[in-house]
Description:
It is built from nine helices and nine strands. The chain has one domain (5-268). The model has no long low-confidence stretch (mean pLDDT 88). It is globular. It is α/β, with parallel strands linked by helices. It has helices at 5-18, 45-50, 61-66, 123-135, 170-184, 194-197, 205-225, 236-248, 252-268; strands spanning 34-35, 57-59, 70-71, 76-87, 94-107, 111-112, 142-145, 151-153, 158-161. The longest helix has 21 residues, at 205-225.
Amino acid sequence: MSVTVYEIITGQIIAQLEKGVAPWRQPWSVGLPKNLVSGKVYRGINLFLLSTAGCEYFLTRNQAEELGGTIRCKGLPVVFWKMLERENKKTGEKELTPFMRYYKVYPANGVEGLDVPSPIGEKNSSIEKAEAIIREMPNRPVINYGGNDACYIPSRDEVRVPALQSFSDSADFYQTTYHELAHSTGHSSRLKRDGVTQNWGFGSHEYSDEELLAEMTASFLSGVAGIAQKTMQSSATYLNGWLKKMKAEPKFIIQVSSRAQKAADYILGHLDEDPG
Length: 276
């Protein structure tokens, strides 16, 4: 039996988790991964596939060769969707069906002979960006700061987050706020996700899946803001549950990351973008 693209990609994530590394919890210490030639930031699951390389820029083998570089490292997989034309057996009509494919990219720091831009430090503006993401979210829920717990209450469409002074540093505060705002995107007035609208109970599979989505969304937004994301901690129950589900359902992690990208796009006001 041939291995599917889903199995290949999910296998990469599982391997990291079994080493104790959750890729959506890693700090974006060198900026969000992007293509060296186009400057385009990778999206969805691709961000997490490249997150542990410790490099901001990546390029394909052809791009490396065209720039006169010599590859001295292993490639990493990234996925894309390709539309293939197939005949509907019932109607006889031609239909376009999306299929996931992958190719390899190489971290620029593992390719000799390249002129790679140095990361541009934006520490002075990162807090402003982090604030702007919250302030400019379309159709934003009510946010109340204070108390000891962070949560989203669907029935009130309300986010509650402890005051900034309650956190050890501002990065924790913004990451927590993004996590709860991610949950709010599932409200019926926004993206209408079952994990929020159906009010699944704590400990259920649906609740667990929604938690993973929120973690990923917070990671995306932290990278966009340029804040020093801290390594997030979740219960062993969640981690073991996610790992078990990935092994049983190869499409799971890719589907959740796609929904997380869509949630991040909503918060950023990029509603027309392909979640990837």
